[in-house]
Specification:
Blueprint: E1 3-7, H1 11-23, E2 27-31, H2 34-43, E3 48-51, H3 60-69, E4 76-80, H4 85-93, E5 98-101, H5 106-117, E6 123-126, E7 129-132, E8 137-140, E9 143-145, H6 149-159, E10 166-167, H7 168-172, H8 180-194, E11 199-201, E12 205-207
Parallel strand pairs: 1-2, 1-3, 3-4, 4-5
Antiparallel strand pairs: 6-7, 7-8, 8-9, 10-12, 11-12
Length: 211
């Protein structure tokens, strides 16, 4: 499931967008100010940022610039009432992929999001392993490997963040009965069946190293 961070301080609009996006199958977390958005972005991995500009503490432009300066290349859309050319230019200069002016058509927003996220190849390759995110099949040397669904979801999270540490709590969220011990068991099984290394970043989480 794709995950979206929505930075929006308008309570009615944020809840409307959350319902719209989750009906579409996108997991959506809301931040009502820039500082909260930074905290959430450090604790989670996202596939898309939807950002208002005029929000408390840290505005959307500065929030995205800070992420881009730290190496975060996650796609980002601004959804804002600012319509002047200077703001448009500032939005793209801060690293935005799209700039949507309020008021906007919800269907158009979904079309833009779908198009952006579907750019991603559904087949993710890591060493001699191929993970098909459409049907959750895993192949190694062209042979299908069998893994429990939870192990596949954990592995997919790691694959989508190669070279980045995935917060332990995010991995625990994939489990019905999450415990540290259970997570270690799942990770051990993944490493054994796929014959890969998964780095334990003490006190933070786990990651797959870049090849």
């Amino acid at each position: 499931m794709y995950k979206i961070l929505l930075l929006e301080d308008d309570e009615i609009l944020s809840q409307t967008l959350k319902e719209l996006l989750e009906d579409r199958g996108y997991q959506t977390l809301i931040a009502k100010n820039g500082n909260a958005a930074l905290d959430i972005s450090f604790e989670n991995s996202f596939d898309l940022y939807l950002l208002d500009v005029n929000v408390p503490f840290l505005n959307g432009f500065d929030f995205l610039k800070e992420l881009r300066d730290s190496g975060d290349k996650t796609p980002a859309f601004f959804i804002t009432a600012l319509r002047d050319i200077e703001s448009l230019s500032k939005g793209f200069n801060s690293g935005a992929d799209d700039y949507i002016k309020k008021p906007f058509d919800f269907d158009e927003l979904l079309i833009r999001i779908d198009a952006k996220l579907n750019i991603k190849d559904s087949k993710i390759k890591y060493k001699d392993i191929e993970f098909n995110a459409d049907d959750f099949t895993i192949k190694k040397d062209n042979k299908i490997l069998k893994l429990p669904q939870i192990d596949k979801e954990i592995f997919l999270l790691l694959l989508k963040n190669i070279g980045k540490t995935v917060n332990k709590n995010e991995l625990l969220d994939t489990m019905e009965k999450p415990t540290d011990l259970a997570l270690r068991v799942h990770l051990s099984k993944i490493k054994k069946i796929l014959n890969i290394d998964i780095l334990n970043v003490r006190g933070q989480g786990y990651r797959l190293e870049e090849i």
